[in-house]
Amino acid sequence: MAAETGTPTTLTLKSNDDELFSVAESAAILSVTIRNMVEDGCAGGVIPLDNVDGKTLASVITYMNGISAIPADEEKKKSYRDKFLSDKDFETLADMVLAANYLNMSCLMDAVSAKIAQVMEKKSVGWVRRKFGIENDYTPEEEAAVKEEHKWTFEGVETDDDN
Amino acid sequence: MSEEIDAEFQSKMKLDNDRINRLPDDILVAILSFLSPIEAARTSVLSSRWINLWKHTSSLKFDAYIGRAVDATANRKKLSEVERGKFVNRVNFVLQSHEAVTLNEFIIRYDISGSDKRRYDDYTLRVDEVTQWLEYASAKKVPILELNFSPKYDESLSYPGLTCAFPHEFLTRSTSVDFTPLKALTLKYIDVDGGAIEFFLRNCPLLEELTVHESKELSDVSVCGTSLVLKHLEICYCRDLKCVRLHSPSISTLKSTMSTGFPHEQLKVVKFCGYRAREIHVRLARYFLENFVNIEKLIIDPRPFFFTEQIPPVSSIPIENVRSRSREQLGAEVPERVELVIL
């Protein structure tokens, strides 16, 4: 282990588009998936991450390094996460949430999920459909019925700002 | 040319338009867990895929003040009777509809004191409703439970807020009551007694945080046990609190408005609420410094709050004077290893 030898152990991660990344084991084990591999002794060579592309993996590794450099201070970690996610577009966030889920990184998963939820907050159904490209597959009758049933959820909805 | 751009735009839109649909249901549910249950339920209308997703979220966090009004000034006003009744109905409707087997957190923040300061008997929350919520928390095996009925948005409040009765018999009544997974418990404006606190300590081996505010029934609390993993204990604004016995190996933060007799070596942070620079307060602060041998931080909070003493919350001494006086009084006495913070 790194702590015992004094030289940090480095892992090599491979994305599904065959990009290779070096990352300190101490940062990489934020991912429970990777930690399990390390603990099972399967992390000797290259660790293939079949569900993550290079661009997303690079971003996740930036996050791993950034957050693991912060000592146990939840406030600072939170502000790092906020800053890290602040400039990401939705497409990147969707990739990140999939990667975080696959890598079993709950702190990143929660932060990205919260960020996406924040976008939906107080927005009208129409706005969310347009923003997230959700196709309304209800028939007009069905939609009217669902709307009626969920009438109680429509209070406090903001006026759309994308018209 | 313009057609080309249009085509490019269209394809980009198509890509964009695929974005949330490519996430699997469990991730969408994780996202919805960060919304209030009412916001989450609104997503039912999006499309048929979304109709039941909100029923599987891992968190149910109800806040009577959120989502009821758009502008911030309206948010500060107290809830009307109609709104309060509606809120309770909605909570119960969501609880009935929700289908998750377990929950990570169950939180209800709701002001039970009436919209009219002079009428204390007009509140709409009944003890059987609280019982029902506790039953729900037990059935869903929640680690985080908060029942908070404080009038928190009305800081100018200068009359006693209403508290709600705690269904003490519920804890012992049923063998199916199970709070084993509890890690953090917050009860505010509920008249929980010492026996109930001890029930939670005894039956929740994972309990790390315990917060009780504004209980009229709390006079003696015993927080003792070598197997306790409690780290944060907060007992505030309980008018009749006389004694807290604390013997818990993991305690690291303690906040209380009544504080005599906690010799404890592990205590590092002490927050003294309602400090008014009186002689008794100085003595109490000295007591902390002498008895908590490993104290690292002493926080003096002179801001007014309700009920610490039987006097009106607006102190005759301006708060600035209290601050400067407490610095004079304590500054010289605080050892170097202790950080003195005056709020």
Kindly describe this structure.
- The complex is a heterodimer of chains A (163) and B (343).
- Chain A is mostly helical and 163 residues long.
- In chain A, 56% of the residues lie in helices and 8% in strands.
- Chain A folds into two domains: 119 residues, Potassium Channel Kv1.1, Chain A (2-Layer Sandwich), CATH 3.30.710; 40 residues, no CATH class.
- Chain A has a three-stranded mixed sheet.
- The mean pLDDT of chain A is 90.
- With 343 residues, chain B is of the alpha/beta class.
- Chain B has two domains: 57 residues, no CATH class; 195 residues, no CATH class.
- Chain B is 31% helix and 18% strand.
- Chain B is built from ten helices and 14 strands.
- In chain B, the strands form three sheets. Chain B has a ten-stranded parallel sheet, covered by helices on one side. Chain B has a two-stranded parallel sheet with strand order 4-6.
- Chain B starts with a helix and ends with a strand.
- The interface between A and B is large, with 39 and 38 residues.
- Chain B: This is F-box domain-containing protein.
- Chain B: It comes from Erythranthe guttata.
- Chain B: It holds the Pfam family LRR_At5g56370.
- Chain A: InterPro entries: SKP1, SKP1-like, SKP1-like_dim_sf, SKP1/BTB/POZ_sf, Skp1_comp_dimer, Skp1_comp_POZ.
Uncertain segments of chain A are: none
Number of domains of chain B: 2
End-to-end distance of chain A: 57 Å
| Main sheet summary of chain B | 10 strands, parallel
Radius of gyration of chain B: 24 Å
- Seen as an oligomer or otherwise, the chain set is heterodimer
Q: Most extensive interface, residues per chain?
A: A-B, 39 and 38 residues
Kindly identify the CATH topology of the largest domain in chain A.
Answer: Potassium Channel Kv1.1, Chain A
Percent helix among the residues of chain B? 25-40%
CATH class value of the largest domain in chain A: Alpha Beta
Helix and strand sequence of chain B: HHHEHHEHEEHEEHEEEEEEHEHE
Q: Please state how the strands of the largest beta sheet of chain A are arranged side by side.
A: 2-1-3
Fraction in helix of chain A: 55-70%
Radius of gyration of chain A: 20 Å
Output the structural class of chain B.
Answer: alpha/beta
Query: Which strand order spans the largest sheet of chain B, edge to edge or round the barrel?
Result: 1-2-3-5-7-9-11-12-13-14
On the 0-100 scale, what is the average pLDDT of chain A? 90
Largest sheet of chain A: 3 strands, mixed
Discrete helix count of chain B? 10
Pfam family, one (chain B): LRR_At5g56370
Organism (chain B): Erythranthe guttata (Yellow monkey flower)
InterPro entries (chain B): At1g61320/At1g61330-like (IPR053772), F-box-like_dom_sf (IPR036047), F-box_AtFBL13-like (IPR053781), F-box_dom (IPR001810), LRR_dom_sf (IPR032675), LRR_FXL15/At3g58940/PEG3-like (IPR055411)
Protein name (chain B): F-box domain-containing protein
